[in-house]
Amino acid sequence: MSASFSASSTRERGAARLAAGTLVAGLAAGLLAGAGAGTAAAADDTGTGQGRSGATATITGLKTYGAAVIRGAAGEQQVSAGLFEMSVEGGGMLQTYCVDIHTPTQRDARYHETPWSGTSLGTNDNAGRIRWILHHSYPQVNDLAALAKKAGVRGRLTEQDAAAGTQVAVWRYSDDVDVDAVDPQAEQLADYLHRSARDEAEPRASLTLDPPAVSGRPGERLGPVTVRTDARGVTVSPPADAATSGVRIVDQDGRPVTTAADGSRLYFDVPEDAPADTAELTVHASTTVPVGRAFASDSRSQTQILAGSSESTVSATAGASWAAKGAIPAVSARENCATGGVDITATNPGEAPFTFEVMGLKYTIAAGASRTVTVPLSEDRTYDFTVHGPDGFEKRFTGLLDCRTRAAETGTATQSLTDPSPTPLAGAPDDTDLAETGASAATPWIAGTAIALVIVGGAGLVIARRRH
Fold first, then answer.
1. Separation CA 303–CA 119 (nearest Å)
2. Which of 169, 351, 391, 440 is the most exposed place for a label (fewest CB within 10 A)?
């Protein structure tokens, strides 16, 4: 990739080509992206059932950025490149880079911390190199003079240059696209990071409970559920109806638990006379989220990867079910991009087989056994299905499977009419704008303008033909 070109000439070439070739494509894509966001948001309100854990945050905007140019068969596209900020539910701020260059970032999209396996990073052999880049560049390295010296950058490296160069290096590995930073200093940094990156392991979750579902007989301690976290301490909240159900959260010796730490083993202590039912415990902590954790949204907003975290609030949940006789299922789910669907794990410590049905197929889990089955799903589509079992057993799972970058889906780094399209930089956006690869608050106005242009153009052709 070329590291030497003029920022002003690139802007002129990119703007001219985009104005001529991608106006209607970009506007149509904005309409489609906006429509998809509304549908996905409605699905998110139903609750996912996956027992998600870690940090949940809302994206607030692209805050520190420069410009980059994507090259493809359709020409050049100029986009913003840099750091996003997210506001964490319960307190805290996150800084992220995106890992899906051709997918828009939906304004105010809600994100949840997720394993790489549930995103395009899970099937990307270079995901570990992306984490190396994050550890060795801005904002983890905030001494920009030292970073410039190490990277061999000629000239002064600003925060905007550092953010843009880092994002470009990430995109080269996350999307496998031909992309360069416009600013020479940012491009030199991007080349250094891209060239120097080494593989690093996926970071573990900021806070999780393993397994997310257990089951057993009343009168027993159900579990254990193990706490996994880097936080110094964890607060344990009992089931919401603990006062009436009598269910307690205890340690292996049966002592009530209100706090825990990494490795703590928690149990549901269920009264012997309790009728068949379910309960849920929640743990909370305050910690910094590990660099390299993925953040996904159920609104088809581009996947993010964590570059920095303040002290933030994180949480996790686990459920328990019990019955006096027969099958006693514990059912959980997780998105698995390697299998192209959602993995349903059912455990049955009961004395009878547990047969359940999902998406028209039946599965049987023998007494004392466990089994994982995959529900295959379509890429970029919201899903909503229910696991049905005997005696009225039901467990619902909703979400959106987003396993491939847009470039990987189309087999190319260029855009089609149905793809969200990066928009040209027509001037410096204010600090509330999202990425130029993302949705805009002006989308309805732009969409109306696009339709009007199409109508006017069509009318002009008709008149010209009649005159001819």
1. 8
2. 391
Higher-confidence residue of 417 and 420: namely 420
Instruction: Over range 320-341, report the average pLDDT.
Output: 95
Give a three-class secondary structure readout of the chain: CCCCCCHHHHHHHHHHHHHHHCHHHHHHHHHHHHHHHHHHHHHHCCCCCCCCEECEEEEEEEEEEEEEEEEECCEEEEEEEEEEEEEECCCCEEEEEECCCCCCCCCCCEEEEECHHHCHHHHCCCHHHHHHHHHCCCCCCCCHHHHHHHHCCCCCCCHHHHHHHHHHHHHHHHCCCEEEECCHHHHHHHHHHHHHCCCCCCCCCCEEEECCEEEECCCCEEEEEEEEECCCCEEEECCCCHHHHCCEEECCCCCECCEECCCCEEEEECCCCCCCEEEEEEEEEEECCCCCCEEEECCCCCCEEEEEECCEEEEEEEEEEECCCCCCCEEEEEEECCCCEEEEEEEECCCCCEEEEECCEEEEECCCEEEEEEEECCCCCEEEEEEECHHHCEEEEEEECCCCCHHHHHCCCCCCCCCCCCCCCCCCCCCCCCCCCCCCCCHHHHHHHHHHHHHHHHHHHHHHHHHC
pTM reported for the whole predicted model: 0.78
Q: Are 233 and 259 in contact (CB under 8 A)?
A: yes
